[in-house]
Structure of prolyl oligopeptidase:
Amino acid sequence: MGNLNRALEFPTTRRDPESGYTLHGRWFDDPYAWLERLDAAETQAWIAAQEAVTHAVLRAVPGRDALRASVARSARHARLSPPIPAGPRGREFLWWADASDDKLKFMLRRGQGAPLETMIDPNTWASDEALVFAVPSPDGALVAFGKAVGGTHAAVIHVLDVETGRLLPDRPRGTGHSSLAWRPDASGFFYAACPEPGEVPAGDEAHWNAIYEHRLGSGVPARRIFGDDQVKEYWCSVKVSECRRFAVLSKWDYVHANVVYLLRLADDAFVPVAPTMRSLNQVQVIGDSLLIQTDLDAPRGRLCVASLTAPTEWRTLIHENEDTLQTVAGIGGRLYAVYSHAASHRVRIHAEDGTYLRDLVLPALGSVNRNEGEGIVSGISGAWSGDEVWVNFMSYVQPPSVYRYDYATDRLSPYHVPDVGLDASEYVTDQVWYESPDGTRVSMFITHRKDVPRDGRQAVRLSGYGGFNISVEPRFSALHAAWLKLGGVLAFANVRGGGEYGRAWHEAACKTRRQNAFDDYIAAARWLVSAGYTTPSKLVSRGNSNGGLLVAVTAMQAPESFGAVYCRAPTLDMLRFPNFGHLSSATVEYGSPEDPVEGAYLAGYSPYHNVRADRRYPVMAFVSALNDQVAPPYDPLKMVAKLQAEGTRGGPYFLLPLRDSGHGGGTTLTALVEQDVDELSFYCWALSLGLAEPTG
């Protein structure tokens, strides 16, 4: 650990001893609350001074140029989506980029064999501007797209005329535009947004999300058609059915439950399907029937069917089983059900009446679905009235790839499998099971080179999430590839709070049961040591978003278990999180600081409130995305200040600010590569790794 003995001069931080508040009769110091004012000159100067120390360390790491080359080799490759049919004579749109593009472009092909034409090229925009979504109209004549600045949230809708290349003057009302669906006649579209500033009380600008309808060229403000008038924290999403008769409207209580209505487009009548907020439901219109995927009375999910004449009278079509049903896609008259089977995906094909037909065999252990703002989105796509089946797939060692599936021959054919300079045959992914302190069995994926010895000396990067019903399933990243090529081991623990094993697994770590997730994660770190993979000094703990909270809490509770911690875009002050943006809606997950019981529980593990001078904490890096609109970007600042002042037996503790970055990172591939290089440099410095040249 020679690196850690190097003297580092961090800037002094002003401590305000009078700053704090009383909650449930207890005084809580908040001496660094002044850092929440990100635009203040004092805060900006402090960030710059901290950043200078961090960069001085990371940019001096030997082999950094080789790390950059390794990351870039796995990040810069051609990217291609399945086609999106829209318009006459085989017109289709798609997302595409070559290895030199920093951002994905939205393309048009006017028919089979026709050349690709660029419709929207965000590479020509400012570097901090992002193309968040693009949705062609049903006739293929227009494209509505979302453009955001400094991240991928708070998009603004624009409308492009495909033939002229000009933007329409339309500017839909509201802020944070998302989840867009066109009317079948292309006269307008539905979208989700928050109200205009001034339409809600100050401080509520990130709330009262609703579905609006914008009519093109009308000059009339978009009308609000669906939302909630009582609960400001709910958010909404919209789709239009393949048959184009209905808009499917959903209102979400975060990821815990949602209600679903149909809007009959012929007369704008509302049709209730799941009118009460008690389960998670995804609804599709298939002919005169509704397919309802739900966890109502089925914690691991089931598929139901209902008639359009009696939409709330459901009948089970595919029963709950031991795996977790994540999505169902109706394609070519068949049902493609994607399950989480021990935290990786399995695809089962059923007939329209629910009869099991066969499994769609995937290339390897990996994942098909993805998590987005509208919950879990199926990686199987196609039309009920068509016969093309598209399959997205990736693993820890295979990048996001697209396959075609032919049901008649039961054949999965590669359509786009990028070359990322990683030979998957040289690596192995094992799934192990270990016990948490309360006896619960928890699964963990471990990926490494096949010839790695179990001699207790390997550098291991352990990650987890543990919240919001989000599953940790096999995912590829350029950083993962570079770490593996260095000889590192990747470990991903499927701790409670995630969605891998259904509603019960998620709820086992909600609110005053959150400690279960922390216990599961600490147990994973200790298992990796006891199983001979590594030692604590060679184990780096990495978490993002809610995973950042996970790694920070576990570092506070079991500092001896980790050699280093990389905590990215976290929430760390668990008594103040409802004050930031839309995070008051996360009380359904974390509990409320205002509740006497839940508030005391939050105070018991809140990282910012549990720094102890008598503990030797590991070296830690706290990463703040300064344009973050999901997690408080000032929480990492406050945490670093407190640790540097009070956790003096351990550390050091670094702040790494991400400028022009939102919750998901930078808006360009170049920025993302550089962020990955910083992260790998931190691992190498903190774990005192002797860097060999990356292979591949």
Observations:
- The chain is about 15% helix and 35% strand.
